[in-house]
Amino acid sequence: MSFQPVVGQGGYAGWRLLARTGEAQGALVARDPRVARDTAHVRAKLGEVGNAEELVSDFRLLRTSLSAFGLEGDANNRFFIRKVLESDLSDPKSLANRLSDKRYRAMAEAFRFGSGGSPSANLAGEIVGRHVSAELERRVGTIDGNLRLAMSAERELKALGASASSDNTRWYNILGSAPLRKVVEGGLGLGADFGKLPIDRQLAEMKTRSGKLFGSDSPSVFAEASNVEKLIQRFLVRAQAISPAQSSYNAALVLLSSGR
What we know:
mainly alpha
């Protein structure tokens, strides 16, 4: 039987439980036979891959690599993924740069095929670690979908907080990512009508709410773990108050599967 994560009753209490036990639970996921076979395949084969066509031709390697970037739903879209991986990241009009979901660009950047390069020697280990984390998130999501959203947001917000991109670019990245946006909207207390506003109004409102909550309207605040924790706590508490008895799994699944 596959390992099923322990999150207690879910919600923010489940989040704190995961904070204490997540590393141990991740190790149990890594020892799951299917996960172990996938990660062993990555370690054995990724170093032999020289271009995007070779990667998408190996379904297990492709599926595991996509999982590492939260894009496992695209495993059957091989032509599209090959084009993403072959994107010239120095060209603003290239496919990876034009997609609103920046997970695609992150993947293309990691594999470096668009610049004529090849994966670094460290990439296999990074893919393995990210795949195990993603698998833990997926299994948590079968119990509490909002916890899965929170786990994904924690990782992405910390990366955005440390990014050298402009403040507006980082806010637009949040607005363009459905799962991340849901967590940030909830954490900032933005209502259901927020999404109906023009995009420039949404940007301005997020900045205003961030300034009130964190004392700054820059996404750089998310480089601080305490600020990410504060946002996630507010998101989870509000989500549980809105629908304490309703499973959030389906909604989270739709959000996390949404991409381009």
